[in-house]
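Lab notebook, bench 4. The sequencing result for the construct came back, and we need a structural model before the next group meeting so we can plan mutations. Quick request posted to the team channel:

Model the 3D structure of this chain.
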Amino acid sequence: MKASWRLFGGLSVFYVLVTIIYWQVGGEPVGIGGMLLAACLAGMVAFYVWFTQKRIGVTLPEDNLTAEISDGAGELGFYSPHSWWPLPVALSACTMGLGLIVGWWLTLIGVGSLMISVIGMVTEYEKPVSSSSH
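Done. Here's the predicted structure in token form:
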């Protein structure tokens, strides 16, 4: 993680320097604002990765110069083998975006369906507690 937070911290500094140069050359306000936001985003990611590294308190295999590939082996997490929920999420997001062009009423429908589909996607593998009385 040390390399990651240094990379994003360096990107943040780079974006700030490029923003200053762009401003001095006579850049437009939208470009200056966009590059400042990019610098802030890179800085936020750098801070998050740095803070997570300090909280974990161990040296990860990618930070150890003498580490073997097998040192990073293990379970990485659970990934859904198949799910239909990304389809309604994408369609709802498209409906919401199209609603910005067509009318506010379609945006509201898109927001409602997006909330329902995101909740469905997040809780897809939640199992309800059944109270069976024998």
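The mean pLDDT is 90.
Will bring this to the meeting.
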